[in-house]
Amino acid sequence: MMPVQVPKGLVLATLFLAVIALATCSMILGYTGISWQDVTGAFSAFDGSREHIVVLEMRFPRAVLATLVGASLGVAGLFMQGLTRNPLASPCIFGINAGASLAIVVATAFFGVTSHEFFALFAMVGAAATACVVYFLGMSTGNLTPLNLTLAGVAVNAFLASITSGILVFNESVLDEVLFWLSGSIEGRRLDLVVSMIPVMVAGWLVAFLLAKSMNAQALGDDIAKSLGQKTVRVKLAACLVVVSLAGISVAMAGPIGFAGLIAPHFARALLGLDYRWLIPGSMFIGASLLLSADVLARFIVWPQEVPVGVAMSLIGAPFFIAYARRSLTT
């Protein structure tokens, strides 16, 4: 009996509704009891009550940030896996997050930077520099294989993380400022700050959508892509720009959150196939859903205290990573 093919449009619509539902849960669930009526009332008839203030000043910006960062990490992970042809590629595995984090710690420790706008700039520079280092290290053997790239990424990730730790050890004031952020946190971000970062993320998403057909051709290999008239170098550079900008801005806003960029593309391919025109929005919705789920989970792991969302995301992502690695080793 043939399996029933679910229309891809219906799959995307379901994923979008899941994001809306999880964002609503993010605004309702937590230490302060919030009802559905409180959420709707905060937007339609704000009365200055404690519940309405919690929704508008704390829960809503947090839900928006989780959605934006999760979507951006999903697209960044998708493009990294496509560029490297490595199913384990992601900003956290390949050291992109570590490079962006180091750049922000250096900016804070040595230049006194405290603005998230400048954090974003330093993070993107750090992410770009790390991507170049990993690429050239992977090429050092003369054969750019997925294994070489993974080994280079893991090595660079560990090296940059040790430098970051060393800086923080000798700068306790900086440690106090960035310790919670380094664990991955979306708590306490103002709505105006979140909104100010939206143009960068939207620009990255738009470029990703414009590259969808080119990435489909690139997936067939460089030779076939060139035979189809594609400028492969330009496509790869543009795709790298998407990864660097989206991963960098995500680290600047929420710290180095792992696994979302690794998991989302795998689920998207399982549900939507291999066409990037479907994979990009699918990875966005799944990445957003993962981070929203992690944000809700973070509030209940050690109730009534909260843990950073990066810790909760690791609890979700680590079992997937182990299971995938085990399956790859046995096939």
Describe the structure.
The protein is built from 14 helices and no strands. The chain has one domain: ABC transporter involved in vitamin B12 uptake, BtuC (Orthogonal Bundle). The longest helix is centred in the N-terminal third of the chain and has 35 residues, at about 50-85. It has about 325 residues and is an all-alpha fold. Its main location: membrane. One of its GO terms (molecular function) is transmembrane transporter activity. It comes from Endozoicomonas montiporae.
What top-tier CATH class fits best? Mainly Alpha
Task: Give the overall pLDDT as a whole number.
Answer: 86
N-to-C order of helices and strands: HHHHHHHHHHHHHH
Radius of gyration: 20 Å
Tally of structural domains? 1
Shape: globular
Biggest sheet character: none
CATH architecture: Orthogonal Bundle
Q: List the uncertain runs.
A: none
| Estimated structural class | mainly alpha
Give the helix tally. 14
Share of residues in helices: over 70%
CATH topology: ABC transporter involved in vitamin B12 uptake, BtuC
Task: Report how far the terminal alpha carbons are from each other.
Answer: 26 Å
User: How much of the polypeptide forms β-strand, as a percent range?
Assistant: under 5%
Tally of extended strands?
0
Provide the CATH superfamily. Answer: ABC transporter involved in vitamin B12 uptake, BtuC
